Each structure stands twice: as C-alpha cells, then as structure tokens.
Amino acid sequence: MLETSEELETVSEAVNSSQSSMSSESCTSFSRLSFDVLDLVPQPRPLYSPESLVVKPHRSSESSWQAIRSMVLKRTASEGVCGMDGNSSLSFRDFCLVRQIGSGDIGKVYLCRLRNEDVEEKRCYYAMKVVDREVLALKKKTQRAATERKILNMLDHPFLPSLYAQFEASHFSCVVMEYCSGGDLHSLRHKQPRKRFSLSAARFYAAEVLVALEYLHMLGIIYRDLKPENVLVRSDGHIMLTDFDLSLCSDAIPAVQSHSLSSSSSPDLPSSSPAVPRPPSGHFACLPSQLFRSKKIQSFSAAKRLFVAEPVTARSCSFVGTHEYVAPEVASGGSHGNAVDWWALGIFIYEMVYGCTPFAGVSNEATLRNIIKKPLKFPTVSTISSRETQARDLISKLLDKDPESRFGSKRGAADIKTHPFFNGLNFALIRSATPPVIPQQKTASSRHFGGTTTSSFDFF
C-alpha cells in the first residue's frame, strides 16, 4: 500500500552515502536522487528501453506514448546517439520530477513529466518507480525487482501498466509507467456511503480485475498481491493493477475447451440462480475462419466453448501477500498455485460489497488462523436482493478453502465469467463501459524538487 510522500536527503549525501534516510522538512532538496547532480557523474548506458520498441497496440493512439516517442526522435536527431538496441533510449535527464506520490516495499514512486514540455496544457504526466539497488541487495530483494521489470516488459493490456521507459541512474533503477490520477480502490471505497460500493459498482470493478487476472494467467503470471490498494483508478475511471514484485512467473498452455468437458469439476450453481448464459455461437472473432474448416471442428465451435489459458501446474512454497488476502494454503505454509489469485478475488469482492474482509483478526496471527479454520460468514440482514444472492454465491465458491475444488482453479476466468453474478455484462466491451466513478478534473498546485510550480492533473 502506498504511503504518504516523504522527502529525500540532501544532494551531497546522494553521491557519497550508501544508506538512504528520509526528511519531511523541505521540498527543495532532492536527496540521493538528484538528476541534476547525477549529470556530473559518469553514467552507464541506458538499459534496453521499451520506448524504442514498436508501439504497443493498446497505447498507440495515446498522447503519453506519442510524447515519449517524440522525445526519442528529438534525441536521435540532436545527438545522433543510439541505445543498445540500435535506437535512442531515454534516461533520467529527459524527465523532471514533480513530487513523490507514494512508496512501497522495494521502491518509491514519483509523479514526473518530460523535461522539455514547456506548454503546461500539453504536458503528459507519468509515474516513475525508483528502486535503490544497494538497499535491495541488503534486503535480499533484488530478484523481486527483476521479476517486476520482466513482467512490465511483457504487458500490453488496457487494465495493466504501460512501461514507457527504464534506465539506471547511479545506483538507482528507474521505470517510467502510466500515471493513474484517480488514486486506488481502497481510498475510493472509503469515500462511498457506508464505506462500501454498490453491487453494480463492485461487479464492474470485479469484472475488470477478472479480465486483468485472466490476461496475466494467460502469460503464466500468478499475481499473488491482489488487494484494493493495488487496484489503481485511471483518469477515465477504469482500473489498472499495479505492483508485480510478488508475482510468480510460470507457463500456461492455451486451449479451447467445450464447457461440458469439465462441468462436473466446476461447482454447481444454486437451483434458484438464473441459467448460465451461453457464449455466442459464431467463430472466435480473433481467429480466422480457416481454422474451422473440418466439420468436426466447426461443430465444436458452434457448441458451448471456452478459451482456457491457466497456469495450473505452477507451484511455490513462498509466503507472500497481504495477510487478510492470503489463501489458506499459503497461511498454512503449504505449496500454492494459480488458485491463490481466485481466493484473493473472492476477498476483494467481499470487501467491495461489505466494506471489510471476512477473516480479519485482532492480529496477523489471528487473521491467518481465521483464514485456515473460520467458516465464511456474511452480514445478517432481513432481506437481500437476487443480485446480492448471486454475489454471495460467487464469493462462497471463490473462498473454498480447498484449492483443488475452488472456483477457477481448473479453468480460471473462463469459468468465473459464466457465473450469474456477471449476467448481462459484456466482458469483450467492458473497456468501453461507463465506470461507476470518474475522477473529477481539477487543477492542483504542486511543489516540485528545486522550486514551486503549478501543475494541472486529475485527482480526487
């Protein structure tokens, strides 16, 4: 969970000290991470940088991508210097830090912009995550940072971060990502009536998180850190998952399966629930019709079928995650796999709907005991709507303490999407749906390192 901003030490300590300390007294000093002072120090060449790659399809038309590539072209034309991949790469000299916007376990995050953007109305803002490699080595968390970098380079999805640039400055590693101006769902929930979302809002956010997890699992990535604090809200109201240093990289084998192949392994829906909607009968839009030439395959494609890409063979024995969100198999110290993400999704939906997590105890130890032994309970109310009944049914299936029988453990999002709680929701077009809350456009005066400036950006 990101914390409030803190200031860095003095510039002189930035060059000479190997230990970082924080000061909250002044915004005018930019401690160990002074980009201006680092200009005086011989710098390593920039790392392989995503801004020199072919533009990612989901971001190709966005001004933030265009601004990055424009800066790359300007540097290439003016300096005639190419990066390791044959193209010019950005470095810390190309960015101006505005202010610190948060900190996590392995780094701090700063709001930044491209240095040469003089027209305020045309400025594009980014989030720069800065990691001290020396501190990482002392904490023995170097591999976690490497895992996050690897994953960020793989992603191209509307509900996941866009990596714009990565480079090194002194003993710091920096990654420049998309800036989400709407805060996170934890903060947003606390601004709702009774500190909980409506069922329709909870369903919307759960659906977008589900689609993001589906994509990650398709890449063989088990997220392992789902919680409202890690679900950021973009300026358009849609979500973005963040923080991948706890994620597990594995393999997933994509397959197209008939719904009837494993229907017996999926939990049965209550008899009072509406029938599960059938997928449309046409071919997959993303696959050419030539792939369905044989009558056997055509017959199969016209039947109920699902695209499945789930890393079911992945295993880890690491204890990772936030206590209230860890699955029973993690809390008990056993091995775990892809099912931990679906458990976390159940906790996530419960918290969105009821304003708290179901197994929280007075201490972390009590919480873990509750997760392992305490049965799931819902708030007692006189009457509940059919939609809430569906929500409780989905939560109950996701919070099955047995990972083998947990909803989603075999076929992941392909099964979860068919639950009645999501009836009437078009997952393919959810990116175009109107979010429950859209951040208000306001102008805020922001202090930046080295002086004061007024910057316009979205915020709550």
From TrEMBL:
What EC number(s) does its UniProt record assign?
Answer: 2.7.11.1
Alphabetical list of CDD domains matching this protein = STKc_phototropin_like
Q: Where is the composition biased (Low complexity)?
A: 11-25
Q: Which GO terms describe its molecular function?
A: ATP binding; protein serine/threonine kinase activity
- What are the entry keywords? ATP-binding, Auxin signaling pathway, Developmental protein, Kinase, Nucleotide-binding, Serine/threonine-protein kinase, Transferase
- Give the reactions, separated by semicolons, that this protein catalyses: L-seryl-[protein] + ATP = O-phospho-L-seryl-[protein] + ADP + H(+); L-threonyl-[protein] + ATP = O-phospho-L-threonyl-[protein] + ADP + H(+)
Residues covered by region (Disordered)? 1-25
Q: What GO cellular-component annotations does this UniProt entry give?
A: apical plasma membrane; cell surface; cytoplasm; nucleus; plasma membrane
Q: Name one GO biological process term.
A: auxin polar transport
- Entry superkingdom: Eukaryota
* Compositionally biased tracts (Acidic residues): 1-10
Where are the bilayer-spanning segments?
Answer: none
Which intervals hold domain Protein kinase?
95-422
Q: What class of enzyme is it?
A: transferase
By sequence similarity, the record places it as follows: Belongs to the protein kinase superfamily. AGC Ser/Thr protein kinase family.
Q: What is this protein called?
A: non-specific serine/threonine protein kinase
Its source organism is Helianthus annuus
Q: Which gene encodes it?
A: PID-L
